[in-house]
Specification:
Blueprint (H helix, E strand, L loop, with lengths): L1 E2 L1 H10 L7 E4 L2 H11 L3 E5 L12 E4 L2 H11 L3 E2 L2 E2 L3 E5 L5 E10 L4 E7 L6 H7 L5 E4 L8 H11 L4 H20 L2 E11 L5 E3 L3 E4 L8 H4 L9 H9 L2 E4 L4 E5 L2 H13 L6 E4 L6 H12 L6 E8 L4 H14 L6 E7 L2 H11 L4 E4 L2 H13 L1
Parallel strand pairs: 15-17, 17-18, 18-19
Antiparallel strand pairs: 1-13, 2-7, 3-4, 3-7, 5-6, 8-9, 8-11, 9-10, 11-12, 11-13, 14-16
Helix pairs in contact: 2-3, 5-6, 8-10, 10-11, 11-12
The structure holds guanosine-5'-diphosphate and manganese (II) ion.
Manganese (II) ion binds next to loops.
């Protein structure tokens, strides 16, 4: 789960990492009032779950509350890489002398948290890594030993920080960032830029924060931060119905039993020259309600033109699934043609049930490739 900048900064602040004071606003009036309360120049920042807001016009400096209101008017509703801005973070503007970059993430290869620090912050870190890899200091933390203060100092030296006061402040931030990272079960905590003010004060000016979904049960306060409106509407519906679903961008809706089978179904659709609209795993059951829920999610995607059911009967018998499909089609009105491929336990019986009932728009195929070809063909009809 990705957090908004202001949410990440709230967690930073809880652990003592210095951030600027700010307020959330969803209208120009609120932005104006926030600027008034904060006093002095402010920066108005789009809150979207994507980077590069600065370049996209999603960040504006405002000298007065009036200007803050104007900036809010310009930024609200802006489309930043497919994310429409609905919330703003208005914070006290900082004076910037230097921009650094600091992050901690999980290095799966090494099975250890990895810190990265560079004095070339403010820009895309991928660019720094590519063009001046030596400028990027890296440090793994031994998780069983835990974080040691000397490690933060080593990281600062490796990045070439030579000012004693900066070293001290950055080292303290590194230590706190490690605590946030571990205690919040984060996958990534990134500060870009980490700024040094003209007075020599170090502060986090931005935050990118990803929390491990599987650990959210341990953090009800963070789980509450989820913005349901920002999620993909189909995936949101799927989560509510308990359907295992991932939205893709093609035209053939996919439904199968078992994650591996569904993955191969996506490949076969591609092989047949089509594009899958989604990944959807029915799991072990084939009961009517499960099929109804999955079909509702799949057909809520207006890009879907045809649907492919790919069922391999093991413990789940094909005749049961066939009954589930038929019952589901009685409860739902589905406009799109459905192709069904049944194989495995009681496949013949299942196919017979479907052919006898012969619902309109339902096609039965014996093999996966034939079914995929038919579904792709129908998606173009
Ligand atoms: P991003 O573009 O989504 O990464 O958003 P950031 O929060 O990192 O802001 C982008 C850039 O805007 C920063 O690198 C700064 O140069 C600038 N910026 C952001 N906040 C301030 C501020 O308080 N004062 C000044 N002078 N510049 C800021
Ligand atoms: Mn940034």
């Amino acid at each position: 789960m990705d957090l908004y900048e202001y949410q990440g900064k709230e967690l930073f602040a809880r652990f003592g990492i210095p951030v600027s004071e700010g307020r959330l606003a969803t209208s120009p009036e609120q932005a104006r009032a926030a600027a008034e309360e904060l006093g002095g120049p402010v920066v108005v920042k789009a809150q979207v779950l994507t980077g590069g807001r600065g370049k996209a016009g999603g960040i504006k400096l405002a000298q007065t509350p009036f200007e803050a209101g104007e900036a809010a008017e310009q930024i609200l509703g802006l489309d930043i890489r497919g994310h429409v801005v609905e919330k703003l973070w208005v914070e006290r503007a900082s004076e910037i002398a230097k921009e650094y970059y600091l992050s901690v993430t999980f290095d799966r290869g090494e099975k250890k948290p990895l810190f990265m620090l560079t004095t070339q912050g403010g820009v895309d870190i991928e660019e720094v890594a590519e063009q001046t890899p030596d400028a990027l200091a890296r440090l793994h933390v031994e998780p069983l030993v835990g974080f040691q203060p000397f490690e933060a100092r080593r990281l600062c030296f490796a990045a070439g920080l030579d000012d004693a006061s900066e070293q001290k402040q950055v080292a303290a931030i590194v230590e706190k960032l490690y605590r946030v990272f571990v205690e919040c079960d984060a996958m990534l905590c990134e500060v870009n830029p980490l700024i040094v003010t003209p007075e020599g004060e170090v502060r986090a000016l931005d935050s990118k924060f990803t929390v491990d979904d599987n650990a959210l049960y341990r953090h009800p306060d963070i789980a509450e931060m989820r913005d349901h409106g920002a999620a993909d509407p189909q995936e949101q519906l799927a989560r509510e119905k308990g359907v295992t679903y991932v939205k893709l961008d093609g035209e053939v809706g996919i439904l199968g039993n078992g994650a591996g089978l569904v993955m191969s179904t996506l490949d076969v659709i591609a092989q047949a020259g089509g594009r899958p609209a989604n990944f959807c795993d029915l799991g072990g059951g084939g009961d009517a309600q499960g099929v109804v829920d999955a079909l509702e999610v799949i057909t809520s995607d207006s890009q879907v033109r045809s649907i492919l059911f790919n069922i391999f009967g093991g413990i789940t018998r094909c005749d049961e699934v066939a009954r589930g499909i038929l019952a589901a089609l009685e409860r739902l009105v589905i406009e799109e043609p459905i192709v069904v491929r049944l194989d495995g336990t009681n496949a013949e019986e299942g196919r017979r049930l479907l052919l006898e009932a012969a619902p309109k728009n339902l096609y039965v195929e014996a093999t996966m490739l034939d079914a995929a070809k038919r579904a792709v063909e129908l998606s173009r009809a």
